[in-house]
TrEMBL record:
InterPro entries: ChyE-like, Class_I_gatase-like, GATASE. Residues 48-192 form the Glutamine amidotransferase domain. This is Glutamine amidotransferase. It comes from Agromyces tardus. GO terms for cellular component: cytosol.
């Protein structure tokens, strides 16, 4: 099998390694078949799409909607690299699944307005499939409404005509969309389980996702409802596109 690639941007080793472990666990891939590239540490290599099966994008600290002067040199580089990559991915309708930061990368590429209108605190939210979502092959067998982990400072305000809406939540209208037949982005985190999100809450306690006195209430928020369905879409993506 040709490998899949995980493009990651987390600078902190502990959550970065846990993210990779979660993608391995829930995709069903092993380390030989899921190559991780840490973009915060090195430039994106030239990806030969004919030599790989598909691309995953993990979450991360970058906000697409921040003004240019507030973005680091690394963020500017990563954004330029994604723009070039997505030109080819979208043109070829190549298998791509971006989780959380995938909305920032694919959304910007497609011209979607991204701002803080529909930001969501770290929590569990009910996500509901659209008719297109219910018919989508990587969402096959998912309940019409399922719980998912979220936590983001920005979101897509409105979806461009080039994209198909697959899922929404009451507080964020664009939770998942598709461009073409094979290029996906989710606002929620399909790779996360409760242990994984608790690790991230502690790792990013000082990154502005919640106030200093909200740690315990944030931990309670991610435990208040079970999240048991979202990870299946990672395995479905792999099973559909492994070659």
């Amino acid at each position: 099998m040709k490998p899949f690639v995980l493009l990651a941007t987390r600078a902190e080793d502990l959550p970065a390694d846990e993210e990779y472990a979660l993608f391995l666990r829930y995709s069903g891939l092993d380390e030989r078949d899921l190559v991780r590239v840490r973009l915060e540490a090195e430039p994106m290599p030239r990806l030969d799409l004919d030599a790989i099966s598909g691309i995953f994008v993990g979450g991360g600290p970058f906000n697409a909607s921040d003004p240019p002067e507030r973005k680091s040199r690394v963020q500017h580089r990563v954004e330029a690299e994604f723009a070039t990559l997505l030109d080819e991915v979208v043109a070829r309708d190549f298998p791509f699944l971006g989780a959380c930061y995938g909305v920032g990368t694919l959304g910007v590429h497609q011209g979607a307005p991204i701002d803080r209108t529909y930001a969501e605190p770290i929590s569990v939210v009910p996500v509901t499939l659209t008719d297109a979502g219910a018919a989508d092959p990587i969402l096959a067998g998912m309940p019409t409404t399922f719980n998912a982990f979220v936590g983001h400072k920005e979101a897509i305000r409105s979806l461009p005509d080039t994209a198909t809406l697959l899922a929404s939540s009451p507080t964020c209208p664009v939770q998942m969309f598709r461009v073409g037949a094979n290029v996906y982005a989710t606002q929620f985190h399909p790779e996360l389980d409760v242990d994984g999100i608790i690790l991230r809450i502690h790792a990013y306690a000082n990154h502005g996702y919640f106030a200093a006195d909200e740690l315990e209430s944030t931990l309670a928020a991610v435990r208040r409802a079970p999240v048991s369905h979202t990870s299946r879409m990672l395995r479905a993506f792999v099973e559909r596109h492994a070659r």
